[in-house]
Write the structure tokens for this entry.
Amino acid sequence: MPTLADIAKISGVGVMSVSRVVNGTRKVSRETEEKVRKAISRIGYEPNEAARMLKGHRARVLGLVVPELADPFFAICANAIQEAAREAGYMTLMVACGHNVAVERQQVELMLRRKIAGLIVIPSSRENDFYSTFLEQKVPIISVDRPLENMETDTLVVDNREAAIQAVEHLQSHGHRNILCLTEEEIVFTTLERLAGYNEAMLTQKLQPRVLVIGSTAGSVRESLPALLNSTPTITAIFAVADVLALEALRELRRLKVQIPEQIAFIAFDDFDAATLMTPTITVAAQPVAELGHTAVSLLLERIKSGSTDAPRRVVLKTSLLIRESCGCGILAKTSK
Amino acid sequence: MPTLADIAKISGVGVMSVSRVVNGTRKVSRETEEKVRKAISRIGYEPNEAARMLKGHRARVLGLVVPELADPFFAICANAIQEAAREAGYMTLMVACGHNVAVERQQVELMLRRKIAGLIVIPSSRENDFYSTFLEQKVPIISVDRPLENMETDTLVVDNREAAIQAVEHLQSHGHRNILCLTEEEIVFTTLERLAGYNEAMLTQKLQPRVLVIGSTAGSVRESLPALLNSTPTITAIFAVADVLALEALRELRRLKVQIPEQIAFIAFDDFDAATLMTPTITVAAQPVAELGHTAVSLLLERIKSGSTDAPRRVVLKTSLLIRESCGCGILAKTSK
DNA sequence: CTGAAAGCGCTAACAT
DNA sequence: ATGTTAGCGCTTTCAG
């Protein structure tokens, strides 16, 4: 693999001329450019990025840390991020840390050593002290979907609370008063916000919030849901704060032969594939996932280019309630309960 | 950001001693090690990977090229790859090229400049001449899911043909003789193999293959499927060679109020989420997606470590037919047709 | 076991 | 417009 110097020797010009031709940094005479191009195309040449970076420059690389890629939300978001980064001339160093903070901490340090220009992170947990090293080195960070608490970084989230309120109010508009909120054990920011929205919407209408916390084990829904459905007063609607929860619950309701939306109306978070395939189709609060990714890159690049250390920004994207059948909208003769 | 030399100065030892402590390369006396560690923890130190690489070493980085991440198959595969790479001490430079060869070509060259140690690729097209540069520079490649044609690289695929045969034979065992194969316009390797398997299974039983090619536009199924279902002889079963096709077809069948499996039995490729959520649940030919990812990394690392240029290997993983309801297995009184 | 020197491939900063 | 020089931060090499 030939170096700049090799090309210089062959084409009979100085190294800097070659460098200038390769990078288009400054004017070079027609003929030297010709000579250099000829030499390059003859023996081939690939600039060595490592050498370039030694001059103190940062790599044209963005770091991306997500909890995992198997989850469509993260995957679609990562896809959009990669795409946007690429279009801006950056490569993407990606880590799926398996929801594991130890891995997150270690990999993030490795990214720093590789001199990434900036970092986009969907934090796996509340623990995030290790990101301070980035700020010390003036490497900008943006957190997506969940904030990095107590960190002076840009943040991009969706309006989870408002989305939950919308969903619950919609169920209420169908006459439901006993609405169950299905939430998860692991306390992540988004879940809490949605739960808060649920509570707010219920209390505003002076309704009693009823929350079922689902453990992380697969059979967890199966254990707890049936009993709850038979309790008094009878639950007539369910709001699930995450798609995984919704899927499990729907499987269980299906097994119990519960009619949706007649016996139980249902609204879930996230517009998962199956939502339009099931009978009935599922009404969901949809997040602008790809937009989240693109926006994250824009915000980050802005910081990188300007080098500004102004007060961190918090950008909030809107969700949209996709009304389908499971909320009861498909049913013509809906009697109020 | 302090350098090795800084640490050396502070701790009052030579740079090489510092280097040796940091890398654990060779024996260092207790006390120098002590001094160095102290200095490091006092002012902090992060090795500069770029400088390390200048000595001709390749980066501990694997390249990963996939068509996109929004598709769960690629996402789960990428997830497994990242995980396995990380566990082996490699970072992952990832590109989702949007099924676009031009992007693939360009990004792959950038990876080369970054001195990646090896490349894992799910090719977006048949065009792949640009990968030859890697082989020239002795950077190993492994192609996953689809082979790199005419390239001397390791390949990891699943047995698509056999999977299709299994699926079609299963439908035949239910008495179906008029089985429609739903396939896509874009001619990718996997699709062709599955189609070939379908044809083989049909011809073996002296049955007439019937293939419907679905265009890439969303409404394509809606246009062509209804007419076909009314044609003679009546189709009684469908085999869809990809999950996207299956989803579209299932949506359409649902709209047409076609009973599955009574009127039409159905088997699809890929174990998509919705398969267990729909009514009926969908029988599928499932690929070992995560295993595909892990195996790819193992094979690649083997090459990287050994540096061997032996004949390329082709590893074939088995699929499994997950029998659920849509094939007709749930129906007790199944009359042969 | 330790240190000094050379140089990896490139570019910023000066020369010319 | 072009060439020359001096490093960037590290490790390989060779001497102590």
Summary: Residues 13-17, 20, 26-29, 32, 51, 53-56 of chain A lie near DNA strand D (CB under 10 Å from a C1'). Residues 333-337 of chain A have pLDDT under 50 and may be disordered.
